[in-house]
User: Fold Rod shape-determining protein MreD from Lysobacter concretionis Ko07 = DSM 16239.
Amino acid sequence: MSRRYQSWLLPVSVIVGLLLGLLPLPPAMQPLRPYWLALVVAYWVIEDPDRIGLGFAFIVGVVADISFGSLLGEQALRLVVMAFILQRFRARLRFFPLWQQALAIGGLLLNDRIVVAAIHVALGIQPLPMMFWLAPLTGMALWPPVFLLLDALRLGSWRRS
Assistant:
């Protein structure tokens, strides 16, 4: 049973995820950029499966494709694949300790990189550099703070009684 949360939290978290993805980084740090939007969508698919699913992931992905200027449908496909896998294993994943959830999210982010590489190979786009494969480690390390922050905002535990 999911609790009610502030109606502003879902769109604001998606917008923040988009903005963090657009944030310019120095070239040396670019390969370490986590897929912020995937972390946000993963949280919502795990915590509110009745409202957030494949359609939501697709729409957010298309908005991201337009925002980032990437191949139309690429991020939509990436987020839908991730949301599908999360929906399949949600019942187990919800009850994992946070460090095990981080490992599972790291595996999903690695799968996301494989999907991107497959898209690039299929379309004949230049292959991605080897450093490109480090970003899932960053996302895995950031999952616990992202999860705890969104959970605190969703459940209102940040308010004083």
Summary: The helical segments are 9-22, 36-47, 54-68, 74-93, 98-123, 135-155.
